Amino acid sequence: MERAYGNKIRIAIYDKRAIYSPVYHILPEGTRMSETLEDLGRNGFKIIQPSTGFRFGMDSVLLADFARVRRGDRVADLCAGCAAISLMIAAREERCLIEAVEIDEYMARLALKNVEINRLENRMTVSNMDVRDYAASRRGAFSLVVCNPPYFDGDGSAAKHLTRLTLEDLARAASALLPERGRGCFVFPAARLMELTRHLQDARLEPKKIRCVQHSPDKLPKIILIEAIKNASPGLTWLPA
Q: How would you class 87 by CB atoms within 10 Å of its CB: exposed for 0-12, middle for 13-18, buried for 19 or more?
């Protein structure tokens, strides 16, 4: 848990060299961002996130609901941010283990704080690592990968833009983390569906289920939810909206 020291704050974060061992850092004055503590609306879980900037949205809620989480699953949440998807999955299925992976140090610290305030230390861990490095060290370790990836190419916040890794990188990382028949679930803009499916197939992740999401029946889909299975045979099911 956090402890305040005047204008400084003590926060636990997992060391990259020993992922499961928390170490503590003192943030210097002026570096702490404003944060909010909110009810997640699931089993009394709470979530801490920045009051401004990148906050989890409906796409994360939809992906957490879309992913078929089974008892005993080992779940990797890539590009996890403050671990909203991980928390929702943990609230939904108590008998699974979750590892949230986030490259941004500040967001990884918030993710760890969320683990602590919800008392999930025995079910959930946080890794402050590049997804590519993480995948190289955890090959075949997970039965399910979920990812709400960066959406746009260009400059800006890494949470919203493909500035640090590409869709090809993400697809390859997800595939490396999964064994044969492992599942990967993704949320992405509908307009870029073909781009996403191409990279998934190149990484041996065969799209099997797709759901389109639209604001109302008379509107075009804005985002898609897709489940892919490693080394599965072709065959796609379009789920009702």
A: buried
Is the separation of the CB atoms in 192 and 114 below 8 Å?
no
Per-residue pLDDT tens over the stretch 156-177: 444 444 557 899 999 999 999 9
How far apart (Å, rounded) are the C-alpha atoms in residues 40 and 163? 29
- The average pLDDT across 127-136 equals 96
DSSP bridge partners of 101: 78, 127
Alpha-carbon distance 137 to 100, whole Å? 14
Phi, psi of 45 (to 5 degrees): -65, 145
First to last CA, the chain: 41
For 56, 79, 238, the CA distances from 151, given in Å and listed in that order, are 13, 11, 22
Rounded CA separation 103/54 (Å): 14
Taking 70 as the threshold, does the pLDDT of residue 28 lie above it? no
Whole-angstrom Cα Rg for the chain: 18
What count of other Cβ atoms lies within 10 Å of the Cβ of residue 188?
Answer: 22
Token pair in block for residue 22? 């928390």
Q: pTM for the full model?
A: 0.82
Question: pLDDT per residue over 177-235, tens digit each?
Answer: 999 999 999 999 999 999 999 999 999 999 999 999 998 888 999 999 999 999 999 99
- Angle subtended at Cα 12 by Cα 4 and Cα 82, rounded to the nearest 5 degrees: 100
User: Could you tell me which of 112, 77, 81, 92 has the C-alpha nearest to residue 45?
Assistant: 92
pLDDT in tens, 87-96: 999 999 999 9
Question: Token digits for 141?
Answer: 């370790």
Do the Cβ atoms of 184 and 227 come closer than 8 Å? yes
